[in-house]
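Lab channel / #folding
Pinned by the channel admin:
"Please post every new chain as: sequence first, then the C-alpha cells as a reply. Keep commentary short and put observations after the output so the thread stays searchable."

First post following the new format, from NK:
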Amino acid sequence: MLSDQTIKKLIDDGEIKISGFTERDLQAASVELHLAGQLRTFDETPSRIVDVEEGTNVPTTEVDIGPEGYLLLPGDFVLGSTMEIISLPDYIVGRIEGKSTLGRVALAIHATAGFIDPGFSGDLTLEISNLARHIIRLRPGMKIGQMALMMMDKPARRPYGHPELGSHYQNQRGPTNARLSGQP
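Reply from TO:
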C-alpha cells in the first residue's frame, strides 16, 4: 500500500492524476474523495426482473443534489460519483472505501465495486445505501470516501481500457448505470 509521501510524489510526477487534488485531501495512506452534484435514482417496479445475462437493466433518473442536499431514506440505494476524475497508470490499483464517520451513521458507498483497475480513467461511480432507520442528507462536495493505492509487482499486460477487455466504464463521467451485455 502506498504512503502519503509516495502518493504525493506520483501525483507530482504525473503518474497518478486526480483532478482537483489538494494536499489537504491526502491522508497517511489514502486520498479523500468528494461527492459530485448528481445522483441516479432507480425507477423501480417491484415486479421488475433484472437479468444480467440477458442485459435487462433498471431504468434510472438523474437528479441534481442541490445546495439543500438530497435526503436518502432508510433502505434507499442511489448511484453517485466522485467529483474527482482519476487516472491510474498500468502498475497501480486502487480501493475505494467509505469514511468511518459515514459508516457509523450507516451510510455505505459501495456494494461490491470498490476495486479500481490499473489503467482506469474516469470518475468513480458510488453505490450509495442507507442501511439505517434514519434519513441521511447527502450534500455535493461532502467527503464521501477515500482511495487507497497499491503498487503491482509488474505493470498489467492488459490494463483497464485495453481493446481486448471490453472495459465498459473507461472515461465515465457522472453516476453511471450498469452496462450489461446487450446494452449500449
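NK: The radius of gyration is 17 Å.
TO: also worth noting, The longest strand covers residues 77-87.
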